[in-house]
Amino acid sequence: MNMQFIGKLPIPQEIKAQYPLSEDAVDIKLSRDKEIRKIFTGEDDRMVLVIGPCSADREDAVLAYIEKLRTVQDQVADKLLIIPRIYTNKPRTTGDGYKGMLHYPDPNEKPNLIKGVIAIRKMHMKALTEYGMTSADEMLYPENHRYLNDLLAYVAVGARSVEDQQHRLTASGLAIPVGMKNPTSGDLSVMMNAIHAAQHSHTFCYRNWEVKSAGNPYTHAILRGYVDQNGKSYPNYHYEDLVRLWDMYKGSNLVNPGVIVDTNHSNSGKQYLEQIRITKEVLHSCRYNPDIRKMVKGFMIESYLVDGAQKVDGDVFGQSITDPCLGWEKTERLIFDIADVL
Predict the structure, then answer these.
(1) DSSP state letters, 95-148
(2) Summary count for the chain: helices (H), strands (E)
(3) d(CA 232, CA 184)
(4) What are phi and psi of 163, to 5 degrees?
(5) Domain ranges within the chain, ordered by starting residue
(6) Topology of the domain comprising 12-314
(7) Rounded to the nearest 10 degrees, what angle do helices 188-198 and 239-250 cross at?
(8) pTM for the whole thing?
(9) ∠45-46-52 over CA atoms, to 5°?
(10) Coil, strand, or helix at residue 209?
(11) Of residues 286, 299, 265, 297, the one with CA closest to residue 46
(12) What's the burial of 232, exposed, middle or buried (CB within 10 Å: 0-12/13-18/19+)?
């Protein structure tokens, strides 16, 4: 085997024992989970906002951002439920580049996965214990989910992972909403097959155990746009795209038809300011068509303290080191605009 074994990681049970949740934090998590599930079952007609930086690069900036989110959440609680986006793994198309806080607890130092596991757990914990907000993360590595499974409110399976069997089967064993993104090719049948797989029970191998999942009825679609064979981005958030997805749901045996619209990535062509216009267009589609309003459960928005992006070694506090994000002033205005429409 042509690899070097650097060090054995603690198992999730050991990490949780070192960094346990208080009873109060557990109660907040359970209460938030119930609220979020009701949105995805249609019992609650509010929308969710999965919102935050493209990649959670440093704890102090992420928590400063979440503090602002907390204040806004209290003002729009009757219309929106905000889930901070704390993405600690960064998928790379070629495998090169910054891979997120799990690998790089300090972006300017060498990878250190043991420190990374601890850093990401502590950051998600502080969002919960200091601000009462359970968060979202991408399930890039299914085997790592249990380091955070007592903390997360929402999980996304990315465009490059959605066809992977282990991601689908792991999602089938979770009790929180899991969003399946359409693949980068834009083939919605791949996404729908992933939702089908995750909504059903399976027996499979997970972390050296034979396990049986119950099926996850809160698994749903995420539309994020796509890229053609020439590398050109195309959106899939327009009215016709949403009608098509609704028709696909109607022709399936899936429960709780739902979609989160990712306003960045290929939907915006990574033109981060377009997220504002895209959100408002989808809201217009919701007002026009009650079936679309029933299906659209909310938005995924990339936002941070400062507009735009910088290089990994940049020194602007709260500015993305990966994809460009909306700054706070524009974000706050957009959140209030969404609430005003609903």
Answers:
(1) S-S---TTT-SSTTS---HHHHHHHHHHHHHHHHHHH---EEEE-SSGGGGGGT
(2) 11, 12
(3) 11
(4) -95, 0
(5) 12-314
(6) TIM Barrel (3.20.20)
(7) 40
(8) 0.97
(9) 150
(10) strand
(11) 297
(12) exposed
The whole-angstrom separation of Cα 142 and Cα 166 is 7
Cβ atoms within 10 Å, residue 175: 12
Instruction: Give the whole-angstrom CA distance, residue 295 versus residue 40.
Output: 9
With CA atoms as reference, report the closest residue to 213 among 169, 162, 153, 149.
169
* Integer Cα distance of 66 and 305 in angstroms: 10
Cβ neighbours for 286, distance < 8 A, ≥ 6 positions apart? 292, 293, 296
Q: What is the phi-psi region of residue 267: left when phi exceeds 0, alpha when psi lies from -120 to 50, beta otherwise?
A: alpha
Q: Encode the chain (342 residues) as per-residue pLDDT tens digits.
A: 788 888 899 999 999 999 999 999 999 999 999 999 999 999 999 999 999 999 999 999 999 999 999 999 999 999 999 999 999 998 887 878 899 999 999 988 999 999 999 999 999 999 999 999 999 999 999 999 999 999 999 999 999 999 999 999 999 999 999 999 999 999 999 999 999 999 999 999 999 999 999 999 999 999 999 999 898 999 999 999 999 999 999 999 999 999 999 999 999 999 999 999 999 999 999 999 999 999 999 999 999 999 999 999 999 999 999 999 999 999 999 999 999 999
| Residue 188 amino acid letter | L
Residue 231, burial from CB neighbour count under 10 angstroms (0-12, 13-18, 19+): exposed
Contact criterion met (CB below 8 Å) for 180 and 162: yes
